[in-house]
Design a protein that fits this description.
341 residues, alpha/beta, six-stranded parallel beta sheet, 23% helix, binds NADPH dihydro-nicotinamide-adenine-dinucleotide phosphate
Length: 341
């Protein structure tokens, strides 16, 4: 087989503040046949994730920044077209942390694993059974040490990480309260994810009062995806020896000047709180336990999820921008090519 044409989304310019469609451009390149130790993958699904906003800034971080004029990158699920990597053969379905934002890519296979569409639809390996699901698992169990009977509060509760965090906490016997940005989202959390209480933070005038009412025994584990007013209220409502799981702060990702931290941070001392950040890629050792427990919960009907699907690679920027306006319920995904699984 010869070179394959592949459309790709490139970073046209670095966004300032909220990104705009003009920061992206559609291009095309030719993807050569794999050399020794390489395989070529046709993407079926790609993910857009909030952390990609950080990679649009030219600064040192735990992942390298995207380069202007170059394709963006991220997780994707696809089908192996041809392979010179041991263990991977044409027709295999694979998920990996790179190669997204384009139709076809070459990889040495590092970080890639085969996925079985008989276990779950392919795109699930980018969401509930993928990086966001593992993030929820690590955050809630290893970092938050949530125990039965405790109150767990989750922000961005109806998103990819949030929905899994809510249900793991529920399955572990916690009282679970989630916050999300619409009545449809809070209804889903109550009816489908079966959590104990849900707050539409866009509608509550007094967020702290709403959180206090939903958490009459205070908060033992606060799973942070958002930051800002939620964090301030959580510090006020945290019980002694509470844990604040610092997973994300999406409210700040588009701020040119970082807002000041909460003015009540001093409470971590008197209440002996533990506030700990984490990056999921440092906790790969939990992946096996995660997949085992998730498979059990799914089989027992104790784990459900939603997806928001945007059709076509050319609309990937729109999907990405939607993360910052709450356009998604559950995992935000882009369908890049046909799924023949
Ligand atoms: P989501 O699926 O939760 O999508 C983002 C959601 O955030 C939106 O749907 C929206 O929901 C909410 N949101 C957006 N802007 C704001 C805002 N200004 N204020 C409040 N809510 C807002 O994304 P993920 O599940 O992929 O990620 C959730 C969080 O987890 C992010 O902060 C992300 O960076 C972090 N993360 C961290 C990882 C780690 O290793 N530490 C790994 C993966 C994710 P709504 O309608 O409810 O406002």
């Amino acid at each position: 087989m010869s070179a394959m044409p592949s459309r790709e989304i490139r970073l046209r310019s670095r966004p300032e503040g909220m990104p705009a469609p003009g920061n992206f451009e559609l291009g095309e390149s030719q993807v050569a046949e794999p050399g020794p130790g390489q395989m070529r993958i046709r993407n079926i699904w790609m993910t857009v994730d909030p952390y990609m906003r950080g990679r649009m800034v030219d600064r040192r971080s735990y992942v390298p920044p995207f380069q202007i004029g170059q394709p963006l990158d991220g997780g994707a699920v696809g089908e192996v077209v041809d392979s010179r990597v041991e263990g991977f053969a044409p027709g295999d379905y694979v998920v990996g942390p790179s190669g997204g934002w384009r139709e076809v890519h070459l990889t040495d296979g590092r970080g890639f694993r085969k996925v079985d569409p008989a276990i779950a639809p392919l795109q699930t390996f980018l969401g509930t059974l993928g990086m966001p699901g593992l993030t929820a698992y690590v955050g809630l169990t290893r970092i938050g040490e949530a125990k039965a009977g405790e109150t767990v509060f989750v922000t961005a509760a109806s998103g990819a990480v949030g929905t899994v965090a809510c249900q793991i906490a529920r399955n572990r016997g916690c009282r679970v309260v989630g916050s999300a940005g619409s009545d449809e989202k809070t209804a889903w959390l109550l009816e489908e994810a079966r959590i104990d209480a849900a707050i539409n933070y866009r509608k509550t005038g007094d967020l702290q009062a709403a959180m206090a009412q939903a958490c009459p025994k205070g908060i033992d584990v606060y799973f942070e995806n958002v930051g800002g007013a939620h964090l301030r209220a959580a510090l006020n409502l945290a019980n002694p020896f509470g844990r604040l799981v610092m997973c994300g702060m999406i409210e700040q990702y588009n701020e040119a000047v970082p807002p000041p931290g909460p003015d009540n941070l001093i409470l971590v001392i008197g209440k002996s709180l533990r506030m700990q950040g984490f990056i999921v890629s440092n906790h790969g050792d939990m992946a096996e336990d995660f997949l085992r427990e998730m498979a059990g919960w799914i089989a027992e009907g104790r784990m459900t999820w939603q997806e928001t699907v945007v059709e076509g690679l050319e609309r990937a920027p729109e999907a990405f921008l939607g993360l910052f306006t709450g356009a998604n319920t559950g995992k935000m995904l882009v369908r890049v090519g046909p799924d023949r699984s």
